[in-house]
TrEMBL record:
Gene Ontology biological process: carbohydrate metabolic process
Pfam family, one: Bac_rhamnosid_C
Annotated GO MF terms: alpha-L-rhamnosidase activity
UniProt KW keywords: Hydrolase
Protein known as: alpha-L-rhamnosidase
Enzyme class of the recorded protein, top EC level: hydrolase
Amino acid sequence: MSVGSTVPESLPPPASPASCQWRAQWIGKRTDPAHRIVQSLTSDQVAWVEPGHWLGQTFTAPGRFTAVGLDLVGEPGTAVRGRLELCGPDGTVLADQVVERGIVRWDRFAHFVELPDALDAGEHLLRVQAVVGRLGWSTLSEPAPAGVDDGVSPLPVMGRAVRDGVGEPGVRAIGVETIPAPNPVFRTSFEVPGEVREAELSAVGLGYGEFRLNGRAVTGDVLEPAQTTYDRTVLYRTYDVTALLRPGLNTLTAETGRGFYAARGANTWGWNFARWHREPVVLAQLEYVDGAGERHVVASGPDWEAAEGAVTSDLLYVGETTDPARARGAEWEPVLVVAPPGGELKPATAPPVRRTELLAPVSSTPLADGSVVHDFGEVLAGRIRLTAVGEAGAEIVVRYAEQLDEDGAVHCRNPLAAGGTQVDRFVLPDSGTEATWEPRFSYKGFRYAQVLGRAAVTEVRAVRLRTPVARVGEFECADDVLTWIADATARTFRNNLHGVPTDTPVYEKNGWTADAHLATEAVLHHVDLRESFGKWLDDHVDARDESGVVPQIVPSPGWGRAADPAWSASVVLIPWYLYQEYGDPAVLERYAEPIRTYTDRLLDLAPDGLWPHHSWGDWLSPGHHFAPEGPMPTATMMLRHVASRCADILDVLGETGAAERYRAAADVVATAYHQRFFDSGSGTYRVPGVGYRQAVNVLPLAFDAVPAEHVAAVAEGLFADIEHRTGGHLDCGAVAAKHLLPVLAAHGRPDLAITVATRRERPGWGVWREAGAATLMESWDETARSHNHYFLGAAAAWIQQAVGGLRPTSPGWASFDVAPILDDRVEWARTAHTTSRGRAAVEWRRSDGTWELEVEVPEAARAAVRLPGHPETSLPGGRHALRLPVATTRPGGDHQPPEAPKAQTPP
């Protein structure tokens, strides 16, 4: 078994959030141009090239470089193929790459040429040749005039745009990834005259900052601040540091990591080319009151010093290299006072990420190359802490993965990012002295860690990093697969809550909008998300474009900006889920304008009701990335869902006239969908030439878009497909999988919902449980990339509500149903939920023809017990015990109601 222990934290607590009166200035360390990115990001036109011709851009690399990225454009819906070539000054091709239509490659700075070995500084040419179809390269017609170099910002592209070797005006959108400088560290020293009554430090380091007073950490928080759209919002925290100050000389130190602000390493999302990118910067202000009551301020400014720190490499998707000996000999120099990052400074209110547990490996297996693979027994998010002794300069390499290859070595390859994947390195600083090390500015998703080095590694532990959100729910039932789905959904989500809810801690670390809105209802049963998702909804507002469209990942460096109602519906749906859970309309009031603006824009883009643009659709249905039916059906139904929820939200806010307009728009969408996809011969929805698809029928049933006279036929078609074509299995992707089980139950087949949910063969959740997994995988297929991906757990909401038997029926749980389903395969369940009104719970068992229920109702709520074949029983606040006969049923689901039940309230 895994050995776990709580990580001790004898550290100062955070002070109450407050708006600091800033006297501090933003500071950075002057960085050699050889280690800064070269880029031209903006464009006002697209230069197109036909097959047989090429476009290029010359550039001068100021230092050794490892990759070059560019902003290519492909014509939608057409086959595109070309070739990227990086050439030396004499025209020699140094690296090349095929460019063709892919899943994620056609977006801002999604393409890059990775070099097998770094190239030297000097002039080079990047060119793209069209082979099939037209290729476009975003271009700025008039290069911006070069400003004064501030010492920390990216450098402008020095070169010329070319076409078939002939120069033309402008500069192409291009970015050159040089070898980054070591992460900087900043410090100041100051005298404290005597006793300190109170002291607070308000501070932020971008990308991440760690602050120490007199060598002691001011907080146990890690990976701070949480990721934001940095030119819109920057978050800081305030810490009580009274106990860390001392009379006499004190030293305040800030060490920075790159994070998403100063990200390095080429990647498909273009985080290294975000518009806010600079070298790491710091803002810090310490205020203390001395024994005489006088207030003192120590603020970052020109009197601070900077030096290179011990982290010599910090790449977003790779990892860290730490060489403490290098930092010992670092030369301190005056800092640069730099311009603010542009975002409004706000106190952070969402819970931070912290070390929560140290895990010992359950097994450690030596390999032939001398490395040791440590298995921690479960997939988690965090990093390794190890202790080693050896010769000074010996390097220890740690590679992390969720899977092993056939030889037992860790297997983790990320084609979306350059360089290695999840690799940390530590260089021993002293000979013969034990050193304990843990990476500080990154986290990984892993079950296995492979450790190799010319040193004796005496201890290896996994450090679990989690956001300490309150646990509010419990669920367990007689079926182990159903219990596992609920537990695994919560566990996987918590592995992905690091500043934003990410899709995977390994491959992307992105806040994919659909992943979260699909799973929110299920996850709210487990954890309190008011603060975490409040922060992320603010990120949605910051990330919008000028028309109100929310990108597909939030925050975004500029990638994924196209509207997609199946994905960025999160800006509408998550506020609604939070309102339903907590009962506070303030969340709807706060986001009413973004909700309305976003919905308006979607409706404008689909004037006839059908969604004609790109969408991820019913992503990752079994055997597919994009669903065979194409994106239109799912995106159109999600457009109806968004418009309907917008209407519901405006109703709550008292805007009934506006609500009716959105409801009418939702009906237009439903009518267009029915006219386009309904097949009168079969009585089901179909896409011509594709055959029956579950998602195409599940979603209109889920969103009340089927004309009343056709509902029964559409539902029967779904039942028949599951019972006969798929043998009791689902055949849909992430969007429809959330709605499939409740649709089956709502239309009279809860038994079929249980059948689908408990399949132990692929596709289905049970196969993962049978394999011993504790977390959800990214897709139903054996080739699932990520083993730590929560969006396929969205169906857990129905399991908790229908099998567990607790379902809220009014906002904030003012009323709720106790309504477990009747199915012989599930004979008991217990579920509890801490609501904003108190604890709601039910424990039920069915045996010998009798229901036995114990129900707990918060004092300010009422519960309705609804059992098949029985009239409703209303329960007030308190604890109640009920014992009722199981009603007999006839084929077709009709029930013979027995005598009305009587509640028994125990003393």
